[in-house]
Design brief:
Bound molecules: 5-O-phosphono-beta-D-ribofuranosylamine
Mean pLDDT: 94
Structural class: alpha/beta
Radius of gyration: 17 Å
CATH superfamily of the largest domain: Formyl transferase, N-terminal domain
Largest sheet: 8 strands, mixed
Distance between the termini: 40 Å
Strand content: 15-25%
Length: 217
């Protein structure tokens, strides 16, 4: 694990901390940071954890003065030990809610158990349709299936991939001349709106579970 020192994120420390887990481009991380900077999300990014040393998302964290570390699960003897490292880093940073923003590895159960109903994932389809697989697979599957509407989902992360309780969804049309790229871009614009919104809901303490349904009190 390599670390850069946590920076204040230019905001008061008493704001609730978000841990953001990334593996790639980081546009959803950027959307979270911009929502904070615009005053739309009363929080601070306490820590970014990347599963890859070369993730462009790390440059976004640095540009915003956010503390970041790299935890490569395959560098650990077991998934459980990688999970323990992730939980330790999140706890040390005082993260209250965790967002998976393009995070590729499947989290060990110890992580989901350490943060019950507090880890959010954004997936580029209207779950439960086109579950599983990273972008652009869900978008390509939607095109191939011929659906006229698709979108994105933010859900709580449970041990079953892409199957946790749904917090929020946004729909977009599938146009006749769409390519995987054009459809993905339309969905991504909605992800950038939906993920900060759902993080705000999760931090509000107003969400509760009724069976598999997330309801707002
Ligand atoms: C997004 O499409 C997200 O839905 C999926 O991975 C992609 C991440 O993009 N889970 P970015 O790294 O946030 O730009």
């Amino acid at each position: 694990m390599t670390t850069t020192p946590p920076a204040p994120n230019h905001l008061p420390e008493q704001r609730p901390g978000i841990g953001v887990l990334v593996s790639g481009r980081g546009s959803n991380l950027q959307a979270i940071l911009r929502a904070i900077e615009r005053g739309e999300l009363a929080a601070r990014v306490a820590l970014v954890i990347s599963s890859r040393r070369d993730a462009p998302a790390l440059e976004i964290a640095a540009a915003h003065g956010v503390g970041a570390c790299v935890i490569v699960p395959k560098a650990y003897p077991s998934r459980a030990e990688a999970g323990a490292a992730i939980v330790a880093a999140l706890r040390a940073a005082d993260a209250r809610v965790v967002a998976l923003a393009g995070y590729k590895p499947i989290l060990d159960a110890s992580v989901t158990q350490a943060y019950p109903n507090a880890i959010l994932n954004v997936h580029p389809s209207l779950l439960p349709a086109f579950a599983g697989g990273m972008a652009p697979r869900p978008q390509a599957e939607a095109l191939a299936a011929g659906v006229k509407v698709t979108g994105c989902t933010v859900h709580f992360v449970t041990e079953e991939v892409d199957a946790g309780p749904i917090i929020a969804q946004a729909a977009v049309p599938v146009l006749d001349d769409d390519s995987v790229e054009s459809l993905s871009a339309r969905i991504l614009a909605e992800e950038h709106r939906l993920l900060p919104y759902a993080i705000g809901l999760a931090l509000s303490g107003r969400l509760s579970l009724v069976g598999q349904r997330v309801v707002m009190r």
